[in-house]
User: Fold these one by one.
Assistant:
Number 1:
Amino acid sequence: MVEVKLLPYEESDGQLTFKDSQIKLLYRYAKAEGKLDEVFCASDLNQVTEDDFLAAYKHGHSIKMWVALAGNGRLAGWCWIDDIQRGRARFHYMLFQWVRDRKLSLTIAKGMLHQILHLQDEEGNYLFNSLVGEIPVTNKPAIKFISAMGAKVVGSIPKYRWHDAKGKMVDVVFCYITRET
């Protein structure tokens, strides 16, 4: 079994846990692998710089980010949550090309979800009871993958989200996962 370790990108004792250059490296790797459009549903990412990418995570409101390491500490990708509201958040992730093996990628993605769903505050209360996801209905592999991760697909909403690369509103599938699912 591959060990998955999530390292939070946060301020601790007045210092960020990662250097700006390390966060920008995530952008460069994802761009080199052609994953930015897939992850962010945007075509204008050629105009988005690594500085913009850094600023989104560094100064984004209601965004928490983790860098994912797998196995012997190899960089596997990153995940983030946003739209955080009273025990629930929207979950996103990006895995690098070397973890495209289905069994390995499922192990890493499940590890990410498990760790986030088991985060607790100082009093031992869980921070998140559920994580939700929104996936364009045309992204069948992602829908199949998220289902294999244990998420429950609950339906879709027509023309719910703007997709830059497609230049139009697209239908979105909604899913959720809890500690119990």
Number 2:
Amino acid sequence: MTKNKIFYLGLIFIIGICSLIFRVNLSQALSNEGAQLKSIEQCANINDFDKKLNCLKKIITSKKENKKEKESALSLIMSYWQSKDGESGYLISDLFLDILTTDYKFFFLQMKKYPKEYDNWIKELNELSFVWFKEPPSPLEKKREKLIAFLKSISDLQDDTDSLRLKLLDALIKIKPRQVD
């Protein structure tokens, strides 16, 4: 065999091995990506409440999930809100704000289905999402200002959901974040 043939055979062998490795890594990456998004049932079975909410948030904010899946995830969160106690109220309130800023149309359409819970959340918003228990300085005033600016920038909602936006905007304007020592 000539040196050229040996060289080309070696090159073909290396390309084949690299291609095989690439395919294995690609299939693992794709299966891991799918595994990262859990089902609602898997989220509901997580013991740590903060992790459970984060799991549901991933479903709601995922571009891959369908509308029914997102609605079911929010419905489960609303059931947690209805039976909240202690720290869970803080976590859920902050999650509502995250969902709002991620997909405001979805957020307001869903909140329209839960008027009592939405009103209760707005009444408790100051105490749940705008009290700082850590060392100063508190980032909550900046958070409040960003939310107000965000809500003011929204102009494409229908009247029935825009009224929910305006109610939240009014509450945020009146809120005075506070530091607890």
